[in-house]
Design goal:
The protein is mostly beta strands and 116 residues long. Helix content is 0%, strand content 52%. It has no helices and 11 strands. The strands form 2 sheets. Strands 2, 4, 5, 6, 9, 10 and 11 form a 7-stranded mixed β-sheet that branches. Strands 1-3-8-7 form a 4-stranded antiparallel β-sheet, with no helix packed on it. Strand 7 and strand 8 form a beta hairpin. The protein is globular, with a radius of gyration of 13 Å.
């Protein structure tokens, strides 16, 4: 049974930091690219960052220099370190696993609220 579970969301003040975690099971983690997406109510889900199994990373411009994606293959876990948070970063953050054939698994999301 595949499980993808995000954690680490919460309320943080502007300029603060949070680290999101995504723990997985039920598939061969090292064979999957791991992605973080986010969604604001009423808007489409948008890509935030990608990390491939060898560790190659990609970031959307709006988080570049502030967010860092990393993975721990033995722990089947991917992380998103978020620094210098802005109110515009407020969203539900989703973890996604995708392999080269297009098989894709999603978590249920964790809410991040950036507000004073």
């Amino acid at each position: 049974q595949v499980q993808v579970v995000e954690s680490g969301g919460g309320l943080v003040q502007p300029g603060g930091s949070l680290r999101l975690s995504c723990t997985t099971s039920g598939f061969t983690f090292s064979n999957y690219a791991m992605n973080w997406y986010r969604q604001v109510p009423g808007k489409e889900r948008e890509l935030v960052a990608i990390i491939g199994s060898p560790g190659l990373t990609y970031y959307e411009d709006f988080v570049k220099g502030r967010f860092t994606i990393s993975r721990d293959n033995p722990k089947n876990t991917v992380y998103l370190q978020m620094n210098s948070l802005k109110p515009d970063d407020t969203a539900v953050y989703y973890c996604n696993a995708q392999d080269s054939s297009g098989v894709s698994y999603w978590g249920r999301g964790t809410l991040v609220t950036v507000s004073s």
